[in-house]
Amino acid sequence: MAEKIRLLSAVLGSEQVPAHLARSVIEERLRSAILDGRLPPGTALRQEELAGLFGVSRMPVREALRQLEAQSLLKVITHKGAVVAPLIGEDAVDTYALRVLLETEALRQSIPHLDAADIALARSYIEQLENETAHAEIGRLNRLFHLSLYCKATNQKLLRMIEIELNEEERFLRFHLSAMGLGKLTQDDHIALVNAASDKQVEQAIEVLEKHLNTAALTIRRYLSAQVAK
Ligand code: NI
């Protein structure tokens, strides 16, 4: 127990948080520690421990945990409470099959409404990806690139679901990208995708996106089965 608290306070800091900011500060600290891997998948987060650590009541802690659960960063497990959610892996095939459905629909809705500024923003992410070598940053830029093409989708709920999936992928890429070698291959897809979107070629854009996501799914699947074989 003392060991666990020490770990948590090393990761999250232990300064007392002003009561009126407690929920958002706690949520933000947990979120960034989960995203960058300081709190690995499976870590249990107990309300009393976190409340004690930050010197607040359990209510803001519970609220923060609920927000993170809604973002799929935590899972609530019976008798165990909130734990840091697993990375895509065992269900990678299902995850990508679902993403093809969600993201092609978002792209279909969004492309007719994309203007020159949206396309320029998407291209700027491709350029930044070209020069970026830090894996955490590559994951983030990839997410922002995809969202920039879906952003004008009319169904807001669809966009929120896609954001959850993209956050999950970003977190996975942070840990595994170096070993996977997706590299420049996916940049060719990104360029083809933004060109098709810019030309309002909806069907062509969808075809590229499907191929892009299927390639990622295949690469992740191969990578994970090689991990298991080790
Ligand atoms: Ni991509």
Q: How many beta strands in the DSSP annotation?
A: 3
Strand order of the largest sheet: 1-3-2
The CATH architecture of the largest domain would be: Up-down Bundle
Amount of beta strand = under 5%
Instruction: List the bound ligands.
Output: nickel (II) ion
Mean pLDDT: 86
Structural class: mainly alpha
Q: What is the count of distinct domains?
A: 2
Looking at this structure, what is the CATH superfamily of the largest domain?
GntR ligand-binding domain-like
**Count of separate DSSP helical elements:** 10
CATH C-level class of the largest domain is Mainly Alpha
- What gap, in angstroms, lies between the N and C termini? 33 Å
CATH topology of the largest domain: Four Helix Bundle (Hemerythrin (Met), subunit A)
Portion of residues in helices?
A: over 70%
SSE succession: HHEHHEEHHHHHH
* Radius of gyration (Å): 19 Å
Layout of SSEs?
Layout: H1 2-12, H2 22-35, E1 44-45, H3 47-54, H4 58-70, E2 74-77, E3 81-84, H5 92-110, H6 116-131, H7 135-150, H8 156-180, H9 183-198, H10 202-229
Antiparallel strand pairs: 1-3, 2-3
Helix pairs in contact: 2-4, 3-4, 5-8, 5-10, 6-7, 6-9, 7-8, 9-10
Nickel (II) ion binds at residues 142, 146, 186, 190, 212.
Could you explain the architecture of this structure?
By secondary structure, the chain is mostly helical. The protein folds into two domains: 2-84, Winged helix-like DNA-binding domain superfamily/Winged helix DNA-binding domain (Arc Repressor Mutant, subunit A, Orthogonal Bundle), CATH 1.10.10; 92-229, GntR ligand-binding domain-like (Four Helix Bundle (Hemerythrin (Met), subunit A)), CATH 1.20.120. The chain has ten helices and three strands. The chain has helices at 2-12, 22-35, 47-54, 58-70, 92-110, 116-131, 135-150, 156-180, 183-198, 202-229, and strands at residues 44-45, 74-77, 81-84. The protein has a three-stranded antiparallel β-sheet. A hairpin with a 3-residue loop joins strand 2 and strand 3 (81-84). Helix 5 (92-110) packs antiparallel against helix 10, helix 6 (116-131) packs antiparallel against helix 7 (135-150) and helix 6 (116-131) packs antiparallel against helix 9. The protein is elongated, with a radius of gyration of 19 Å. The model has no long low-confidence stretch (mean pLDDT 86). The structure holds nickel (II) ion. The site of nickel (II) ion has 5 residues, from helix 7 and helix 9.
